[in-house]
Specification:
This protein has twelve helices and 22 strands. By secondary structure, it is an alpha/beta fold. The structure holds thymidine-5'-diphosphate and magnesium ion (MG).
Length: about 450
């Protein structure tokens, strides 16, 4: 590709600069100027006059477009296929984001090895590690990696021509921060480079039918230039996350043109690579100590799947000054609201207590349906009375202290029943029909209407 002169354009106002500046000369905004590949300038009239076949295109009536059979390549790594929406779609561009060391290279190597075993040609382009280092990691894995082609290069033009030459059906580029295109002068990892690289790979994927998976590092803050600026370009965005100390990893799709989002796949990092965990609830419940005060179980919907988690709360007498409120895995503001509801509507007294709440397994509570379980854990710790070991809590709390039902009640109850729970305390007593309120999957739904009924459920 010939290297044209780059321009430096402001993302806010579109002002062009001859060289990079920190502050846009057009609108005075900071850090909005990024490098862009210069388009060879042709006057508009000349472009229109060209009409030489290469530029003349003909629109097609939708009715004449042959519905393509959406074939997908199954990797045979069930949790990965599930999160992708049922395998890898040919010609798609996927971004796999995650913190360094979380296991992105590992899972993709496993995916490629399994694809090769299924007869799908693959190419792994690593800009971070030499082929020897890739080999070292590969030797630890369960999968047979021998047929996977590797290339240690960071020039996208070289990677793409290699992929075309070996007719790779799936190409992994590890990582977008080290890759660069000749079309721009900026350093690898700069906003302009990352965006142009993603666009180049997108064109390659669409033109060749090769599925491209891009690795992007994100830091804890998630504010590094790479992945965020590419999210709108790619078809699918996967995030790989996990707690550094715990050996399991959560794979989630936050954008998916070919499937649903927010589906969760759980893996555990073993000595032999990542192993899918088909039954995540068993991990998140952990070794649930019987009758431990301050814990309560709830069923979350992670995408279409119910997952049981344990919420742990600790209320202890605070020293001098403002009592502490510490929340891990939930919004501290939501904790403050729940504490206020419990004080004003439930008659509990937290004013002189330090309060700590956490969720097992590094999951994040984002749905309001977990309110009741958080409240139950708080009350349980406050009164040093355990919640019943056979019960889960489901429901959203309103500011007036009323308990509202959760969505997808039947699926949550079914999962809890499967794991041996016998009762579910929750909102919705008035809306449930006798059949719903009866025993679903061996679990009984006990309707509660107001938060002042919550204390009575403890240790029953
Ligand atoms: P890696 O895939 O290199 O992370 P990323 O590409 O996201 O930066 O993962 C590296 C970590 O995984 C490293 O700490 C070692 C660990 N690991 C295992 O525990 N078991 C294994 O079988 C492999 C290959 C890696
Ligand atoms: Mg890596």
């Amino acid at each position: 590709m010939s290297r044209g002169r780059s321009t430096y354009r402001c993302a806010e106002c579109g002002h062009d600069h001859p060289k990079w500046v920190g502050r846009c000369e057009g609108c005075d905004a900071w850090n909005t100027v990024a490098e862009e590949a210069a388009v060879p300038s042709l006057s508009t009239s000349r472009r229109w006059a060209l009409g030489d076949g290469s530029t003349s295109v003909r629109p097609t009536p939708l009715g004449e477009v042959a519905p393509s059979r959406l074939t997908r390549w199954m990797t045979g790594l069930p949790e990965f296929d599930f999160v992708m929406g049922g395998g890898i779609v040919p010609g798609s561009l996927t971004l796999l984001g995650g913190e360094p060391g979380i296991g992105k290279s590992t899972i993709l190597l496993q995916v490629l090895a399994r694809l090769e075993a299924a007869g799908v040609r693959t190419l792994y382009a690593s800009g971070e590690e030499s082929p020897e280092q890739v080999r070292l990691r590969a030797d630890r894995l369960e999968e047979t990696v021998d047929p996977v082609l590797v290339l240690a290069d960071t020039r996208l033009e070289a990677i793409i021509s290699a992929a075309a030459q070996v007719e790779a059906r799936v190409l992994v580029v590890d990582s977008i921060q080290t890759a660069f295109t000749d079309a721009l002068e900026g350093a690898p990892g700069s906003v302009g480079q990352v965006r142009e690289s993603a666009a180049l790979l997108m064109r390659f994927a669409k033109a060749s039918g090769t599925a491209v998976i891009l690795v992007g590092h994100v830091t804890k803050g998630g504010n590094i230039a790479g992945p965020k600026t590419m999210e709108h370009i790619v078809d699918t965005v996967l995030y790989f996350e996990g707690e550094a100390v715990l050996d399991f990893r959560l794979l989630r799709a936050t954008k998916n043109r070919f499937g649903s989002v927010d589906e969760l796949g759980v893996f555990s990092m073993s000595q032999r690579g990542l192993v899918p965990v088909p039954n995540p609830s068993s991990i998140f419940l952990g070794v649930r100590g019987r009758n431990a005060p301050g814990t309560a179980v709830t069923a979350l919907m992670e995408g279409s799947r119910p997952v049981l988690v344990e919420i742990q709360a600790l209320a202890s007498a605070s020293g001098f000054g403002t009592p502490q409120r510490v929340a891990a895995g939930l919004d501290p503001k939501r904790l403050a609201v729940l504490l206020a509801i419990l004080e004003r509507r439930g008659g509990a007294e937290f004013a002189s207590k330090d309060v700590f709440v956490q969720v097992t397994g590094g999951l994040k509570l984002t749905e309001p349906g977990a309110d009741l379980a958080i409240a139950a854990a708080l009350l349980s710790s406050l009164g040093d009375t355990p919640t019943p070991s056979d019960a889960i809590y489901l429901g959203e709390l309103s500011l007036s202290g009323e308990i509202r039902p959760t969505t997808a009640l039947d699926r949550r109850l079914a999962e809890a029943g499967r794991l041996g729970f016998r009762r579910a305390f929750g909102g919705g007593a008035t809306t449930l029909t006798p059949r719903d309120a009866g025993v679903t999957a061996g679990i009984q739904h006990v309707g509660l209407e107001h938060v002042d009924e919550l204390a009575a459920t403890l240790a029953r």
